[in-house]
Structure formats: C-alpha cells, structure tokens
Batch of 4 targets.
Target 1
Amino acid sequence: MAQAEIGLIGLGVMGSNLALNIAEKGNTIAVFNRTTERTDEFFQEAGDLQDRVIPCKTIEEFVAAIKPPRPIIIMIKAGDAVDQQMETLKPYLQAHDIMIDAGNANFRDTMRRFEALKDSGLTFIGMGVSGGEEGARHGPSIMVGGTEESWKRVEKVLTSIAARYEGDPCVAWLGENGAGHFVKTIHNGIEYADMQMIAEIYGILRDGLKMQASEIADVFGGWNKGRLNSFLIEISEIVLRAKDDIGGGPLVDVILDKAGQKGTGKWSVIEAQNMGVPATGIEAAVAARSLSSMKAEREAAETTLGLPDVPALAVSDKAAFIADLENALLAAKIGAYAQGFAVLSAASKEFSWNLPMPTIARIWRAGCIIRSEFLDEITQAFTETPDAANLIVTPAFAKTVKETDGALRRVVSAAVLAGLPVPALASALGYFDSYRRGRGTANMIQAQRDYFGAHGYDRTDGADSHHGPWGSGLVSERS
Ligand code: NAP
C-alpha cells in the first residue's frame, strides 16, 4: 500500500469515527492506538475501507507509514495525555511534520504547545472538532488554528471530511496558534447556553403548563419547522418521544436531573471574564449545571424552604403563551450568540488572531452541535455589517430582537411569578435591557467607590477625574 496521506493516534469514540470518515473520502490513513488490541478491533470495524487504512502497532511503524511532511491527528483524552503523546512522537518526526491536536484542548495549552514546537522545525495545529460521534463519522465542523502553511498541507483532507451546508464545507483556518481551539471553546459555551435555555422552556411547559413529554415533543417538533430549526431542538423532540424500556413511560422522566460538564463552558466564562466581556447566558448555563449537580443539597433545601409560595403559572390563552415561548427562546438565543461572538471579537484583538466572524458562523451552520439555519442569518449579518459592535445591533438582528423581546419579557415575568427558575432566559433579558440603555446606574457604583476608596469618577459634563465632595453623612456621624 502507498504511504498514507495522514495519520491518526487515538481510536476512541471520536478518533475511530474520524479515521473512518477520512478513509471513506478516498484518503489513505495510518492509525495507532495506545492499547494495541483496539487497533485490531478498529481494523475489523473498517470493513470495506480496510484498503485505505494502515493499522500500526508501534509509533515507529506508524510514522514510517505516513508521507512526509506528515500531518498526524492526535485525538485522545485532553490534558496531560496529549503532552505525553507528543513527547513520545517527537523523536520519530522530521522537519515540517505537523502534530494536530483535535481533542477539546484548552486554547492556552494549545498556545503553549505551539510555542514549544516553534524552533524544533515541527509544526502544531490546534483543531476544534464538533459534532460528536455522528459528526466525526459523517462530517464534523472543523475549526483550525496554526500557521497558514500547515493549514495548506491539511486543507484538502479536512475539506473532504467536513460537514457541508448547501455544498459549502464547514471547515476553515481561523488564525495562528490557539485560534481554532478558542473558537471551539466558545462554540461549546454557546452550546451550554442554548441547551440551558431549551431546558428552561421545557421546565415551563412541564411544570408550569403541566404538559406530558409527548405533548412537549409536539411543541418542539412544530418549532423545528420555524425559525428555531436546529439540531438541538430536533434532538430535544426525539429525546422527549423516547420510551423507558424498564418502566414504559417517557425516558426523559426517569433521567436524574444532574448535568455533567467537562470544562469548555467554564473556560468560556473564565476567558470572557478575563477580557471583561459579559457572557451572562453562558455564565447562567454553567452555574445551572453546577447547581443541578448539587442534587442532595437541593432536595434538603426543598424540605427546609419548600417551593415558592406563589400562585401557579397563570395562562389564559395556552396557544398564545406557547407562541410567546417560541419567540422568547429565539430572543434569548440571539442574546447568547451575540455574547459568544462578542467574546470571540475581544479575543481576536487580545491575541491578534483576526478571527473572521462570518466564516465562524458559516462553518457552524452544519456538522456541529449548535448547527442551525439561524447561523446562516448570523453569517449574513456579519458579512453585511462587519464592523457591528454587537450582533444585536446589526439591522437584521435588531429587528428580530425588537419583534421578540416582548415575548421574552412576558415569559420571564410569568415564570418568575410562578416560581419557575429561568436563569439563562432572564440573563438574556437583563443583557438586552442593560445593553440598550444609554444611561445606566453605574453612576451610583462610581459614587460608592469614590466614597469608600477615593477611586475618583468622571462627570457627565466632562472627562476629568473627580473625587467627592461627599459631605458628612450618617457613616461619619456614627463612627
Ligand atoms: P474516548 O472514546 O474516551 O477515547 C480516548 C482515547 O484516548 C483512546 O484512544 C485512549 O487510548 C486514548 N488515551 C487516553 N489516555 C491516553 C494517553 N495517556 N496516551 C495515549 N492515548 C491515550 O474519548 P473521545 O470521546 O474519543 O474523545 C477524544 C477527544 O475528543 C477528547 O479531547 C474529547 O474531549 C474530544 N471530543 C469529544 C467529543 C465527543 O462527543 N465524544 C466531541 C468533540 C471532541 P486507549 O484505548 O489506550 O485507552
């Protein structure tokens, strides 16, 4: 067999599917896995694609099987394992070979790895891959960070395996070093917010309107034909229709309400905070997952405090309220995406990446977990208004926000009055209301800061910094 076009290390869920995808698209691939039995198993699974797969049992054999300059995808557990794998691989490589970390790396690790290899003659690509198992097998969304030269070496293979939206491949080179993994992290942060908002709407339908899982599935099915059309709404409907093999009822009703998280949501929030960009939807979603995991504490609190002593959700026109829920979810989703893109924009400046916003929205339209037609609208908005300060002030989205924020306000108000938790939906409303108000309330904060810490303040009638005078008030009289 001829030498492979590319190599892949790590035949777990993602790696094995990605390798089959690469082989299926006509590329020859060499594969290696730490546990060699898995390599044999994988080769059997490759079936008809075996003639394009070179299974290797040693790193030496693996490296020799790939055509130089060698692009090698490392798709293993994120963290120290990647550093260890890179160290093992390094002595076998030659100048211009490319190590590609395709796992969910923290972009700061990617920047460190990129720097560490800089003078070695080797190159590093940090590559975000989204779409889970199915995406990896049949077309993921791929976010590439590294040198443009290294991208040119892998462009053909990656383009062949990426998802397609109306024929357009969902892969792009986004910038140097950590750009690809940063964009993937924010993709996941937005995903957290989107999922939390859907869960809150589900909660209003289940606990507020007392609807059964199958009825909620019908609602989501209807929404999936409209502007909320997306993978997440689609799978929410499927999930709500699934039956429990054991008890026979809806499966969703017997799933414990404790959400897991692996870190990308938290990283999104940390980086947003580091850059001073509000990402309240992602923050609310990460906090909600943390709160969800405190199951025993929540149960104890329900015993101590009881549920809020408030009237049940008051809805006179159920159909109108469900229409409001659809628009509320759309408005809140716009808020979360606007925040995610604002974080990307700040990071682009901070790390000199020159991130292409329309391209990012374009490669998220298919293959990834947040894929939706809505992202096509974002692509258009950023293409038409590249210098917009925020997605919500682009003409198209400003119009939609104005059309839907009333529904969001009614839904959040109704949920709050009925004691139903909607932290992410409410965060979007708070974001809109704060962002669109030219005169806010931070004058009070500045006055307080100046009073107790002499931090100074600017006046509305001039830019000079001032301090006091605050006179003698209650505090000094008491002390
Ligand atoms: P997985 O099924 O658990 O497979 C883990 C792989 O990592 C196995 O091949 C394992 O080899 C290898 N590995 C673990 N520790 C290693 C070490 N110290 N040295 C060498 N190899 C090691 O994981 P996965 O779901 O495919 O995830 C792989 C990466 O993709 C992770 O970074 C994950 O966050 C990311 N990701 C996952 C998804 C998803 O939906 N699952 C989506 C996007 C990105 P052995 O067989 O020898 O244990």
Target 2
Amino acid sequence: MNPEFIGSAHNPSQFPTDQGQEVAFSGRSNSGKSSAINTILARKRLARTSKIPGRTQLVNFFSVGESHRIVDLPGYGYARVSASVQEHWRNLLEAYFKRTSLAGLIVTVDVRRGAKELDRVMLNWANEARVPAAVLLTKADKMSRVAANVQETEATQNLGASVVLFSTRKHQGVEEARDWIWKWLGLG
Ligand code: GDP
C-alpha cells in the first residue's frame, strides 16, 4: 500500500468518480485529523497538518489501492469563519455523504474537549448514510491514563460509534484504527 494524493475538491463536481470504496476522516480544526491520517497511513506529510485552523475548505482524496481511497474532509468548528464559508462547508459535506463509495467515517475528537455538536452531526450523517463510524479520541498522551479511560467509556456510551484512545506521539490506537479502515475498505 503506497498512498498517493489524487486531488482536492472545492465543490462536488470535482469529486473523483464515485466507484470503489473510500473511508473519510472528519474532525474539528486542530483536533489532530491530519496527524492521524499521516500516522495511520504511515506517511509523514501526506495530509497537511495546519498551524492555521479552519482555512482549508477542501476535500482531499488519497488513493490506497486501485479503487480504494482515504478522504480528508475539511475541518470545522473554527469560530471565526463567515456564514458563507459555513454554508459552503455544509453543502460540500452533504453532497459528500451521498457518495455510494463511502464505506466508513472516522471522526477525530480531542480527548480533552470531548465530542461537540458538529462531531455529532458528522456521526449522524454517517448513520443516515448507513456506513459505520468510529471516533479517535486524539492526543490521549496529554491526559492521565485514568482520566482518558473515563473519557473513552463516556464517549462509547454516548456516541453510538466505536471509540478508541489515540495518540500519534505514543502510537496508541493506531492498529485498531487501521483494522477498522482496512475492514471497511474491504481490504482487511
Ligand atoms: P487538524 O487541524 O485536525 O488536521 O490537526 P493537526 O493534525 O494539524 O494537529 C493539530 C495540533 O495537534 C498539531 O500541533 C499537532 O502536532 C498536535 N497533535 C496531533 N496529534 C497529537 C497527539 O497525538 N498528541 C499530541 N500531544 N499532539 C498532537
């Protein structure tokens, strides 16, 4: 498996042909989504980690096999974006979730912040699209093990999705995430 960047879409007409399987990543800006993609795909700078949250409103597609893709959805929840940017994000995402190749959704949630409304919106959209979803509770290295375990239990009870504590620093949860993704893609 040698992931390759396919392209970015600013609107649905730029999405690649809707065939095969793809797993999408979503998450609030700065939740560690890009770091998670890079770690899971074992590539240093495939997805761009950002210092300026909320700037990119692009859907980025990476190929991980002939008809298998990883999709980096635009981050959300950045307070200072305009109403028109929010509207654009919602339309883009609503169109995205109609893709028949969508086979699963990963949502990155900073373990210290917990899931917010837009994270739940994403999980709902996955549910409505009848695809499995999992939550990575990121930056788990920034919390004590006991406190992190409490967050994991709560999230599992509240979110209706698989949940795993995740840390790029400690390489925690990476194998679980890979297993889910490969299974959803039909490559497991
Ligand atoms: P994105 O905006 O959701 O794509 O988030 P990034 O992947 O760019 O990460 C945001 C910030 O969190 C960066 O400074 C990362 O270095 C940091 N970060 C991401 N994952 C981890 C992690 O597992 N542990 C720690 N301590 N920091 C992380």
Target 3
Amino acid sequence: MPEVRRIGVLTGGGDSPGINAALRAIVRRAYAVGVEVIGFRDGWQGPIEGDDRHVCPLSLEDVSGILYTGGTILGTSRTNPFEKKERDGETVWEPTEKVEAIKANLKKHKIDALIAIGGDDTLGVAHRLGEHGVRTVGIPQTIDNDIGGTDYAIGFHSALATVTDALDKLHTTAHAHHRVLIVEVMGRDSGWIAVYGGLAGGADVIIVPEGPPEGSFSVDEVEQVIRRRLEQNKRFSIVVVAEGARPRELGGKQVASGEVDAFGHVQLGGVSYWLAEELRKRKLPLTPRVTVLAYLQRGGIATPFDRLLATRFGVKAVEFALEGVYDVLTGLRGTAVEAVPLAQALAECPKPVDPELLRVVKVIGGS
Ligand code: F6P
C-alpha cells in the first residue's frame, strides 16, 4: 500500500454547523503522525482549478479556534465535474474534462488521499472519482440528514436546535394572536428536520415529503386538526411543513422554483405560502401566517453533539486513509463510527424518516 504523506480535503454542497470541527480534527489527527493537510477551496471547484487561490495548506494554527464555528473555512459550492445523461431510461454521470483536471491537480499537489465533506452530491462525486483512480474518504455533512449509511450527518443536530428554538418563540405569538403559524423547514426530499424539529418544538401538525406518489398530505387533514383543536378551546396551531412536502391537491408535486442546480435538483420552497392560501379559503376563525426558516437552519454555532460527531468523523476519516480504506464514508452506527462503502450509502439516499418516528408523530400530533 503506498504511504500517505499528504491528505487533501474539501467541503461541498450546502454548508452546516460542524464542518469546521471536522476540518480541525482532520488536521490535528494528520499532523500527529506527520501527515500534511492541503485544503481545496469551494468544493470540487478547488481541485478543478488547482491554483493558489483554490489551494491552501492547512496548519494547526489555521484550524485553531474554529471548533464551534458555523460555515466552512474552505468555502463551498455545488460544482459537479460529471454531467448527468439519460441512457436507456437510466441516469448516468459522464465525466467531463474537469475530472482530468482534478486528477492532474491532485498529482501536481502530491495528494495521496482526498477527504470530501458534504452531502449525497459531494459524496457521489467522491465515489465516481474512485472509479477514475482517485483515493477518497467521505464525511457526511448536511442539515437534511438524508445520507444513507449513517444515523446522523454533521449539521443536522444544529439545524434541529435552530428549528426548536424558533418553534418555542413562535408558540407565544401564535397563542397571543390566535393564529395558525405555518413554519417551513428545509430537508429536500426527507422529513428529518420537520419530524425532529416538530416533535421537539411541540408542533400540532408535522408535514413531511415521505408518502405515496399521489401526495404526502392534504389541506383537509390540516384543517381537521386545527378545527379539532378549536373544539378543545385551543385557539392557535403550529404547523411545521417540510419544503419538499407534496400536497395531494397538487397531484403530489412539490412546490419549487424553476431553478435547477448542477446535480439536477430543483430549488424547493413556497409550500408554506401555498398552504396558508388554501387555509384562508377554508374561512377558519384563525388567521394563517407564514415563517420560512430557510438558511437560518444552516447557520450559527455547532451544537455539542455536532462538534463531537464532526471530531469523531474527522479523526476516523484520516485513520481510514492511513489504513488504505477508501471509497467509504464515516458512518455513525449506534455509538460506533464505521467505514461504510460509499456505493452502499449512496444507494440509500435520500434516507427516509424512520417510520417509527412517523408513528410517534401520528399518535401525538394535533391533540
Ligand atoms: O443543504 C441542504 C439544503 O439546505 C436543502 O435542505 C435545501 O433544499 C438546499 O440545501 C438549498 O440549497 P441552496 O443553498 O442551493 O439554496
């Protein structure tokens, strides 16, 4: 097995609190055994460009004081060196000239192994680069928590803290003004943030994207809960709706803008406004109002859980590279951090919310 002297690292996709804690752990673990760490800026754009603006050695000094901070000191982007094509009804990712650029720049900077920190898109690129001879280890990071192969991704817990705090605050004004407050949260096609946040923040209705093709919820169901609460003299309701929720009234389609990113994802958002409008038509005695938490969920300091998870993932990612264990991600399984093959983890994306949690939502919601 060739010796690892220099490790590259990059952070891609939507950011989240905890990434910097992982970078700090990577640098500390690597330097403890005399291995150098080189940072690539702005996701996959870094190794594609490979110039001084996109490549920076990371010293112990560089990662000092960043344990708790949000964002990423390396910057991020949704750059994709592969191109999406449809062939015989199947999606294939064809390498563009950027893949050759990455290989050449990794060689130029003498990178023996590359650690990619990100969501399913970033990790998907890492896996595909493996097929082109690049030795990669992935660290799962996304507030959406929709990556297979791990119980939790870095950032989810911090986003959950933000959502819970927002719901605590919204409760008092909902109560005071006798309103239906609809809170839209992120999560793309998974309802992890909605379910965990909604349960922790005591939402009366929790709406997720998971469900049959004809839709994951209907306005009738939401109205029923609000009216039932009114009968119990509860003159307010809090509705948490995931951005990817699919109204039956829209034939199970998500509410999205026309914007599509380099990985083919549409920009989700707006289902809360749609729902508010529909509820207004139902002439409820409570006025609906909307709060979209949006990018607030990706910001702020990392929770202790995320700092710890990121630190453990960072340490393990370096150790996997040193042991020659590639094409894997660091996965939290119960309390252990394991090497999970990227192919396996990616095949499970987007990881749907645990049905047991949906059962809890059902039995506890709207009372
Ligand atoms: O990071 C994941 C995520 O926050 C999704 O929940 C959301 O749909 C998306 O990113 C928004 O991405 P962008 O930063 O491209 O607007």
Target 4
Amino acid sequence: MSFPASRTSEARLSSEATRPGTAGKAAPHAERIESLISAMTLEEKAGQLTIMPAALAPAPANAANPAAVPGSIEEQAQAVREGRLGAVFNGDSADWHRRMQTVAVEESRLGIPLLLAADVIHGFRTIFPVPLAEAAAFDADLARRTARAAAEEATATGIAWNFAPMVDISRDARWGRGVEGGGEDVLLGCTLAVARVEGFQGDKGLTDAGAMLATPKHLAGYGAGTGGLDYNSVDVSERTLREIHFPPFQAAFEAGALSTMAAFNDVAGVPAHANAWLMKDVLRSEWGFEGFVVSDYTGDFELIAHGLAEDERDAARLAFQGGVDMSMSSNLYAEHLPDLVRSGVIAEADVDVAVRRVLTLKAQLGLFDDPYGRLSPERVEANDQPRYRDLAREAGRKSIVMLKNDGGVLPLRRDQKIALIGPFAEGRDHLNGPWVLFGDPAYAVPVDEGFRAAMDDPANLTVVRGSEAEASLEGGIEAAVEAARGADVVVMVVGEGERMSGEAQSRIDICIPEPQRDLIAAVTAVGKPVVLVLKCGRALVLDETAKQAQALVVGWFLGVETGNALADVLFGAHEPSGRLPISFPRHTGQSPFHYDRKVTGRPPLSLEHGEEFKARYRETLNVAEWPFGHGLTYGDPVYEGLDVGDGTLAWDGELEVSATITNRGARAAEELAQLYIHDRAASVTRPIRQLKGFQRVRLEAGQSARVRFTLTRRDLMFVGRELSWTVEPGRFTVWIGPNAESGLEGTFELLAGDAASA
Ligand code: NOJ
C-alpha cells in the first residue's frame, strides 16, 4: 500500500460513485433537506449541530466522561422535542433509544430523526482485544471482522455512529492512549484504519441496519503530545504531520468514513478545534472530505483554557469558524450560534452548510426512511450477551506476542504442575482494557479458568495473586514463593492494571510497578522456569530480573476470551503469531522511540562500541529492547537467499524482492515476513527504515517458502521540500526479515523517469 498523495477530483468522484452508501444515497433526500433547512429556526439549526451525553447511560460511560451534564431523562427528551438537540451518545438501552427517537420523529416540530452515537472502541457486548493488541496480529481481515461484529451488536441498540477508529499514530509509550490505536507505523496504521472503517460501516451501504458510521479520530497529531503527556501541545513539523499523522486519516476517508473528530491538542500553536488550516484547507479543500467534523467532547469550550477564546461565545465562534460542524457535550453551539448569526458575526449560510452536512449524513444512514430500522425486535433480543466469542478467542490468540522462549519452556505441558502467580492471574478486573463502556466484565474468562480448561488435571494448578497491580499484598510474596517451590513451572501474569493506560493515563516511567517487581524478583529467585505474561496497554520496560525470565509473552488486554486465548497459545494448541506493533525500548528515557527514526549525522557505527560523539545515550545505544515487528514462534524460521532481481526499478516499473524462509524448528511457525526500505540519499533526511510490506506464511517443521514483495516507485514516496508527496531516483537499501532491526539486506536503484508523473 502506498501513502496517498492528495487526490484528484476525478479520483474522488469515481470512488464515490462506486462506494456503497455514501453520497448517492442522500440524493433523494436533498430536496427534503433543503426544505427543512429553510423551515428551521436558528435554534433548531444549532440543535442539529449539538450532541450531548445520553441521559441514560451505563456507569462506565459516565465515568469515562465525568464532566458531562446531560440533564435528566425528561429534560433531554424535552430538548429533543424542542429541536435543541439532534444527537446523543453513549447510551446503550434500545428501549430508551426507541423512546428518544419517537420524541424526535413524532413530537418535534420538524420530525428530524435523532442520531445515536457511541464509543464502540473494540467491541460492544463482545469485547475483543484492545486495538493495540489486535494490531499485533498484522491482520486487516481480522480487524475488519471484529469491527463488523462490534457494529452488529451496537447497532442493535439503535447506535448509528461510532466514535472510532482511533487512527492516531503513537510513538511515545508514555502516552496512555496508544492502547486505542494501531501502533507506531504508518503502513500498519493505514491498513488498520481502512479495515476498521470497512468493518464498522459494513459493505451493504450505510442505510443497512448493521451499518455504523465510522469516525477516524483525532485530527490531528494527538499521539504526539510533548513528553507523552495526554492533551499536551503538539509541535511537529508540517512534513511530519503529512508523512506520519495524516495518512491514516486519508486512508480512512478514502475507505468511506464520513465523519471525523477534532483533537484536543494544539498543533504548532493552533488548537485543532480552531484550526481552519487543518479542518478546511487540508481536510476539505485538499482531501475533498464531505462528511462532518465533531468536536472532541468539550474541545470547543477548552479553547478558553487554551488561551484562544475570551469566553464561551468566543469559543463557539472560533470552533465554528475553525471548521468544527458539531459541538459535543459543551452545548456551546446551542447556546451561542443563534446569537452569533443574529449579530452578524457568523453568516447563516455557513451554519446551513454545517446543518446540511449533518442532515445529509442522517439521510445516508437511512434515518429519514426508517428511524427505527436498526432497532428491530429480533436484533434487540439477540443482543443481551456477547455473540462473537469464537471470533474474540481467535483475535485474542492472534494478538499475543512471544518475545522470548529460552530452552523451549513454552509451550507448557498439560500435565505439568503450574504455579500461576500475579495480580492478573485470576479475576475479571483487568481483562477487557481501559476503554470499555458496554461490555460486562462478568462475561470475561479469567486467566486461571482458561488454564484449568487446558490442563489434564486442573488440580495441578496453584493460583496466587502475590500482589495487587500497584500495591503489595500482606503475605503475598511468601505465598507466591511457596507456590513456585511446589511447581514444575511458574507463569506470572504481571504488568499494568487496565486503568494504567487509556485516556489521561500518561506515565513518566513505563515500568512494571514496584510491588510486582518485588514479587517477580522473589519468585524468580526460587529457580524454577518462569514465564512472564505481560498485561499492558503500551510498551513496557523490564528490569534485569524480569528480562531473565525464560519466556516473555505480551498478553495485553484480550477481552472476553482472555483466559482461553492465552491458554490456546501457552499450551501450544495454536502457534504464537503476533508481532510488536510498537517498539519496546530499553529505557523510558528513549521516549518517544520508534523504529523509523532518522539516521542523524552521527549514527553509532556498531552496536558494540561505546563510541563518543555519536547519537547514543551515555548508558545505552538508541536501539530497542524488542524491536517493532518482533515476535517468536514455536518453530525456527530462517531467512535466506534475498533476491532483488537486477537491482533496478524502472520509473514506471515494478521490482520483485523475494527471500526464502525455512522452518528449521521441530514445530510449525506462523511467520510474518516484513519488507523494509531506506532511501540512501534524498533531498530531505529519511528514516533508518520504513515498513513497505508484510505477509504471513505458515511453515510446517522443515518446510520452506519463498516470500515475494513487489515495489513500485509509489512505495518510495515521501514528503519533500515543497511539503508535497514526491519520489526521487537513486539508491535504496531493502531488507526482508522478521523485524525492524534485522533481516537480509540488499540494494536497488530507482531509475530516473518523467518527474512530472511522480
Ligand atoms: C473524549 C475522547 O477523547 C474521545 O475519543 C471520545 O470519543 C469522547 N471523549 C466521547 O466519549
């Protein structure tokens, strides 16, 4: 996949003509929309540009957005009845949604249907692995299927609009919200953005009862907050925005997403919520986006705290003029847009444009034709319990990454005596992850249950918590040590609790909390083989003791099938096949750390030397502990025989790059072959490596396969001096290998051609 240069208008028209359920579906409603707009009061127009938290919402939804003041159920119904409110979010009661829709359609003056939205991040009733974990599967089809399943469940409660996927590239493990995205890499990020949009929206058109409008968020740069601090200022170059942070949005819009959410942060001094360059010049003029922009929660109101707006009225003005069509939670548009128009500050025609966008989307979602279409009794009835357990288990095991397996301690034998130790060894509290509003933890399978089901004799399992996530337990270490002494092998489930990542959960030290480190030290000192299963929503840095465990496995937050998915992989019923979608650095101080960093003018010459005056730290080279793309299998895949043909890529041609992978191990291997390039001389500095392709290959013991990648000049594009996508002839290094810091290396040359067609 190549990164999008800005699209031509012809390309836009043709992709829209063929895409199901977008512009064409609103056309029959265009007249109705125009006559509604001409009949609407300014207050009703502002109402259509307002979304509020649902008055009836599950407790986690209220906890996630504590500042919300939605009013009582009756007050909210009255706001809808009076046309002051056109959308609500994060309710999950089909009955209440039906009642509210009835109020909108039958009791409001103009009968405009209500738009029901929600944060359906990684499942609705069936909770799948957190998005970062699922990214480890490097599997677009899987991401599409889990998003589709989430949409099927969510839409059955009437929800038609999803505040997902989060497509922010995250390269700083201190930032807690990386858990919600696709990791650090642009190609993987684009691939998952497209898959998730396709999954949420489905392939039957947006009017379909199971279709849920996707919202790639947060535009833009939210993952690049200074110091990894959530909500913090972002000050990256326009080149970095265009090359790293924009492409997943562009890919998601090209896949048909018709809404987006502004980011909380400022970008180079201008908050996204008041950034007309971003929301108008780039989003609409360059990319041709025709959907609508919603604020992130009270992001418009926050323009006061940013120091841009003088007061609430000014904040509403700045956000609206900055290109934010709909205001979430603050109610500022409802309160101030009418007066801003009446006093001549904002033109009514501009308000009409935003209202038209929102009504057009309501029409495209089928709400004018059948406001209750998603709420059929059969769908509501099927929605009580998680419906997609098999898929959740498949996604869970494909998300697991094995970092280390010394002496083949894994897979575990089913007849072994196992001590299962750690704060997450049992219980349902830390399985689903930080961003679940609608899934009931009671449905999740704990780790110990998964283990017992996989063992010959469940009595061979001893379970000891040993400590809490961030606090010690009295007698915990002693009990854990005793359990370890009596076992053949120890499995420790340690790391972060589920509230240690997610929104507003930035960390200054991405370590395992101290009480757990003490526990690990005491248990490993017993001398039994130790497997560490890491629960985390970000990269972790391990201390020396933890690193010495015989086996290390990243187990993330895997959702409803956590225990079973882990047991599937740890006991060897399935091969480990996940790969790191983020680098695991050696120290927190390397943050932000990502594999495709720049070479610099003074790269260290060797991994061994303590060379002075090189780009390294006093204490360590600036390389990963476990690099992006890394992940082991139970087999032993060996890469050989790189072939780059004649080593030239004609300007309009293709170059096949291939290698042979042989599994020299005794068990099957699920290998993920990765292709990286480096541009050796260009008009702007280029990263050490960039991922340009990946493919999965399953190899039985002793089996070989040839993996083939095809490169064209589009794969070699970058944002040049003029800040537009370009490509330059010259020499490139290419690797095919198992991760971002190794592989077979070759070179090729892109031959000069007609630069005008770059
Ligand atoms: C704030 C979050 O940043 C955003 O992603 C989410 O959609 C809204 N809250 C609404 O819950």
